[in-house]
Write a structure and sequence with these properties.
single chain; Rossmann fold; 6 helices; 34% helix; binds glycinamide ribonucleotide
Length: 211
């Protein structure tokens, strides 16, 4: 069977950002839009947490926000269907997970195949899941970093777009390592979104080629 190839669109795109907390990566993406580096608009900032600090920041920045309470849905798929409905209503081209701490259902991932990207605070495929900065310290790895990747149904395993490396120091705590990684996240996430809407990302199987 011929390999399926996806090429990201060269256009002014519409983004839905999904957050659960602080929203610093969301802000860096928005900053890059405001200063003209990313050819896109943020159509919606969505959260599964009512008190996510990033939602307040989004409101202050004049962006549309939406919180939907997951507890009102018996099934995870029903919740995700509601989010998909909101994304479709706004003609969203790309979904940016930016500290969205709820795993998307395979149905959601397939519905927006090659249209969802995520930032993960480790060098994939090492350390999927949560508390990955602590896991890096516990393993005694000398380097860790950040990964921006397309989201597939397999958690933290989709095709890698960009990575950045940081050293792990012997006296690092989860917090100090997370802070060092975050500096790099703030560079590679906006850059990945820029490449996406420049039409420069080509996904072939599990690899992303930058054109
Ligand atoms: C970031 O470090 C991001 O990599 C991580 O959550 C933080 C969110 O910070 N995401 C994950 O761990 C996803 N599995 P932010 O809200 O300030 O962008």
């Amino acid at each position: 069977m011929a390999e399926e190839i996806f090429r990201s669109p060269k256009k002014r795109g519409r983004i839905m950002v999904m957050i659960s907390g602080r929203g610093s990566n969301f802000m860096k993406i928005h900053d890059a839009i405001l200063d003209g580096r990313i050819n896109a608009d943020i159509a919606l900032v969505f959260s599964n947490k009512e008190d996510a600090a990033g939602l307040q920041i989004a409101k202050k920045r004049g962006l549309e926000t939406l919180y939907i309470n997951p507890k009102l849905y018996a099934e995870k798929e029903e919740y995700d269907k509601e989010i998909i409905h909101e994304a479709r209503k706004r003609n969203v081209d790309l979904i940016c997970l930016a500290g969205y701490m709820k795993v998307l259902t395979p149905m959601f991932c397939n519905e927006f195949k090659n249209r969802i990207i995520n930032i993960h605070p480790a060098l994939m495929p090492s350390f999927p899941g949560l508390h990955v900065q602590q896991k890096a310290i516990d393993w005694g790895v000398r380097f860790s970093g950040a990964t921006v990747h397309f989201v597939s149904a397999e958690v933290d395993m989709g095709p890698i777009i960009l990575q950045a490396v940081v050293p792990v120091m012997q006296d690092d705590t989860e917090e100090t390592l997370a802070a060092r990684i975050l500096v790099e996240e703030h560079k590679i996430y906006p850059e990945s979104v820029r490449l996406f809407f420049e039409g420069k990302l080509e996904v072939r199987g599990r690899c992303v080629f930058i054109l």
